Inverse folding.
């Protein structure tokens, strides 16, 4: 919800989860289901991981405001990107703020995908590759806001943007398609 926290609906039962129950904020920006069945919740004041058996783990990293992207990598690491350019990695109980200081600004993290053994991040400044879980390289296609990714039937990764058309990457090569 915009300001009312999270509603957990099971059968005919509806349960509210708000700051009063431990959420970092009532302003939810992103939800993602992890492979473990846990719900990854991005809020304006931090990240929560909710075990639907009512266990809530809350992370308020020292960097970032407005976590609008939450993504689970194949190794189980949870990445959370903020609207102010912070990128956080959560592995178990350990929280790391990744260095994004050299990247173009303003930087808003929008989406993330694992493709061909690599992690790609869509931002307000284009697509970046996350190398080794710690370093962002790019932009691979810069200057365009990328809010989502898709993979086509040939296994190519697509990143559409409103201003520069679409970007396609397959087999390590990227190409832009403009309207």
């Amino acid at each position: 919800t915009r300001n009312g926290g999270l509603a957990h609906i099971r059968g005919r039962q509806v349960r509210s989860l708000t700051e009063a129950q431990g959420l970092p904020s009532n302003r939810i920006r992103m939800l993602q289901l992890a492979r473990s069945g846990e719900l990854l919740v991005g809020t304006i004041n931090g990240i929560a991981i909710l075990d639907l058996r009512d266990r809530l783990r809350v992370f308020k990293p020292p960097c970032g405001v407005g976590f609008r992207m939450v993504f689970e990598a194949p190794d189980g690491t949870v990445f959370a990107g903020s609207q102010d350019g912070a990128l956080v990695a959560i592995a178990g109980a350990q929280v790391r703020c990744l260095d994004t200081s050299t990247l173009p600004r303003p930087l808003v993290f929008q989406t993330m995908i694992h493709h061909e053994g690599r992690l790609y991040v869509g931002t307000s400044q284009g697509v970046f590759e996350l190398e080794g879980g710690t370093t962002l390289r790019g932009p691979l296609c810069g200057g365009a806001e990328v809010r989502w990714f898709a993979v086509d039937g040939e296994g190519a990764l697509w990143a559409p943007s409103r201003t520069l058309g679409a970007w396609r990457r397959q087999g390590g090569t990227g190409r832009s398609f403009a309207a």
Remarks:
- The two ends are 36 Å apart (CA to CA).
- The chain has a mean pLDDT of 89.
- The longest strand covers residues 135-142.
